[in-house]
Amino acid sequence: MNIYSDMYSLFAEDKDAKKYFEALSENTQKQIIMRANSVNSFDDLLEYADQYSCEG
Description:
Blueprint: H1 7-13, H2 15-23, H3 26-33, H4 42-55
Helix pairs in contact: 1-2, 3-4
């Protein structure tokens, strides 16, 4: 698993992660963006997406 400094670095290197993020609801995206510095891998992105899509 690759580790990145933040969500934006992840998206720059992993186009699948960016596509996945863009397919999420706007509310879920906003919640994840507020924690962009904590999204250091695709696994982190998946965990946050699961957490915030359930709160929806």
